[in-house]
Amino acid sequence: MHTCIATVSLSGTLTEKLAAAARAGFGGVEIFENDLLACPLAPEEIRARCADLGLSIDLYQPMRDIEGVPDEVFAGNLRRARHKFQLMNRLGADTVLVCSSVSPHAVDDDARAAGQLAQLAELAEEFGIRVAYEALAWGRHVNTYRHAWRIVEAAGHPALGVCLDSFHILSRASAPEDLEGIADIPGEKIFFLQLADAPLLAMDVLRWSRHYRCFPGQGGFDVTGLVRHVLATGYRGPLSLEVFNDVFRQADAGPTAVDAHRSLLLLKEAAGTAELPPPVVPTGVAFAELLTPDAEPVTALLTALGFTRAARHRGKPVDLWQRGEARILVNTAATARRDGPRLAAIGLESPDPAAAARRAEALLAPALPRRRAPGDAPLDAVAAPDGTELFFCATGDPELPDWRADFTGLPVTPAPSATRSEATRSEATRIEATRIEATRIEATRSEGTRIEATRIDHLAVTQPWHHFDEATLFHRSVLGLTAQASVDLADPYGLMRSRAVSNADGSVRIALGVGAAPADDTAHAAHIALATDDVVAAARAFRAAGGRLLPVPANYHDDLAARYDLADDELETYRDLGILYDRDAGGAFRHCYTETVGRVFFELVQRDPGYRGYGAANAPVRLAAQHAGRLLP
């Protein structure tokens, strides 16, 4: 179906909005009147610009306070409408949106409203224009789609129909049967369908609409269910987005338009009107890649955490550090920023990397070009909304290329197509890596330190403030991950929002966060959480190896003693090591943090199998401690 977006949904000038909509793949736009009034181009020039961009102008909006008014007021309304219809002919738009009146002059008289709308439609028909009547959720007398349809039906004019708006309908709906009345409207009398989602908030509906709408799939409304009801009537007009949102009005129009179009593609998939490549849910984390201008601070931290430099990329300045199943790539390429190490890429294990890439590209995720030397493993990668690179990997799968084959000093399973020389080289690297790991284990044993299995428990990625909802939708739709409820975290400089996405077994967990902070803030850096079966032993080993742990105020552990019945020696151990504690119905969660290096830090976690959270209750304490910038010796 034809996709469309209202220009009010994007930031910038009208010409910038049109260009962004076209680049994102939309087929049409709704021209918001204020955008046209502020544009220096004549209506004919705007029409030509849209044609050049491949955009149709599907709606001109809005006309307000038209119907249900005294005759002398309506006469002025008709004069105003005539001017707008002439303008629309110059613009090339054939449908106008008329909102139900909020005028203090309006009277509660359906017959008068129907008669005046019929006169308006008669005038519109002279200009080849249709009138789409929409019930505003805060309309003075008409505020439901059922009521709007009754008036349109009573008017009985072929140039008059209804516009259905998901926000106005779903913000008032109290039960699913509230949508059933859509079936009473013939599809040909639904002239337009506007779509928006919204978080479920308890507030004045006008303020809710003006500031908190979002794209379908980013809020709590059943937009898909509404679309299915509308399509069942036979409606085949545009699916159009009309979103009022403070964030979108300040964010760059280009990424916002892409996010918007992605939401409509997903909506069409969910409603059964479009078929996309099916999601390929990742099955694990292959690696996390840190980009840094200076490897020393990162490698010192990794060494203290028990990682070993296991291999080096044969053609790039990238080292592979490994401990158990946890792999960290340290990239010292010239593109590294001067503000220190940052999380630049995540490798995701995939049962079908090529299919995962097809899904991502179908949903407008930008495919990333990759400089690849002959013999390098082919790796598909796309960019997440915040710029983090996502690689689709098949580590150790003998049927698929293994990214580790690009590194020397690491065992890999040769792909079936490998030549004998390639297999011989792989065997040599396997022997070398085995020797390195045996040496490390023996050295560690001689120091009396316990060897623990380690893997990446989760990754926490800080989002730009205007990409939070987009990031959630991206990870759900492109990667097929499931999103948990959004939570607010108290930070010394305001509130942070956090929302985790994961696969079914928890082998992939990504916590997306956003929040205001000082310009030099490092508390909101990305972090990598390493799972261990004994966080106390891991923390002690880290500190013994020269690592520095984040201190936790004594007040926290005093409160912990009040909230949980912990043994005195256990509590003292937590106090000494800065370990935090949380518990839910599924079990306990113990965790502590390392120093921050550049824009990244590590977390050591011990998670009971049934625990599903991320220690959110402890986040305010962690954030305050990081802002304080003090470290345990």
From TrEMBL:
<feature type="binding site">
    <location>
        <position position="194"/>
    </location>
    <ligand>
        <name>a divalent metal cation</name>
    </ligand>
</feature>
<feature type="domain" description="VOC">
    <location>
        <begin position="284"/>
        <end position="395"/>
    </location>
</feature>
<feature type="binding site">
    <location>
        <position position="242"/>
    </location>
    <ligand>
        <name>a divalent metal cation</name>
    </ligand>
</feature>
<dbReference type="InterPro" id="IPR036237">
    <property type="entry name" value="Xyl_isomerase-like_sf"/>
</dbReference>
<feature type="domain" description="VOC">
    <location>
        <begin position="455"/>
        <end position="595"/>
    </location>
</feature>
<feature type="binding site">
    <location>
        <position position="134"/>
    </location>
    <ligand>
        <name>a divalent metal cation</name>
    </ligand>
</feature>
<feature type="binding site">
    <location>
        <position position="165"/>
    </location>
    <ligand>
        <name>a divalent metal cation</name>
    </ligand>
</feature>
<dbReference type="GO" id="GO:0051213">
    <property type="term" value="F:dioxygenase activity"/>
</dbReference>
<dbReference type="Pfam" id="PF00903">
    <property type="entry name" value="Glyoxalase"/>
</dbReference>
<comment type="similarity">
    <text>Belongs to the bacterial two-domain DSD family.</text>
</comment>
<keyword id="KW-0223">Dioxygenase</keyword>
<feature type="binding site">
    <location>
        <position position="458"/>
    </location>
    <ligand>
        <name>Mg(2+)</name>
    </ligand>
</feature>
<keyword id="KW-0456">Lyase</keyword>
<dbReference type="InterPro" id="IPR050312">
    <property type="entry name" value="IolE/XylAMocC-like"/>
</dbReference>
<dbReference type="InterPro" id="IPR029068">
    <property type="entry name" value="Glyas_Bleomycin-R_OHBP_Dase"/>
</dbReference>
<protein>
    <recommendedName>
        <fullName>3-dehydroshikimate dehydratase</fullName>
        <ecNumber>4.2.1.118</ecNumber>
    </recommendedName>
</protein>
<dbReference type="InterPro" id="IPR037523">
    <property type="entry name" value="VOC_core"/>
</dbReference>
<dbReference type="Pfam" id="PF01261">
    <property type="entry name" value="AP_endonuc_2"/>
</dbReference>
<dbReference type="InterPro" id="IPR004360">
    <property type="entry name" value="Glyas_Fos-R_dOase_dom"/>
</dbReference>
<dbReference type="InterPro" id="IPR043700">
    <property type="entry name" value="DSD"/>
</dbReference>
<keyword id="KW-0560">Oxidoreductase</keyword>
<dbReference type="Pfam" id="PF14696">
    <property type="entry name" value="Glyoxalase_5"/>
</dbReference>
<comment type="pathway">
    <text>Aromatic compound metabolism; 3,4-dihydroxybenzoate biosynthesis.</text>
</comment>
<feature type="binding site">
    <location>
        <position position="603"/>
    </location>
    <ligand>
        <name>Mg(2+)</name>
    </ligand>
</feature>
<keyword id="KW-0479">Metal-binding</keyword>
<feature type="binding site">
    <location>
        <position position="527"/>
    </location>
    <ligand>
        <name>Mg(2+)</name>
    </ligand>
</feature>
<comment type="function">
    <text>Catalyzes the conversion of 3-dehydroshikimate to protocatechuate (3,4-dihydroxybenzoate), a common intermediate of quinate and shikimate degradation pathways.</text>
</comment>
<dbReference type="InterPro" id="IPR013022">
    <property type="entry name" value="Xyl_isomerase-like_TIM-brl"/>
</dbReference>
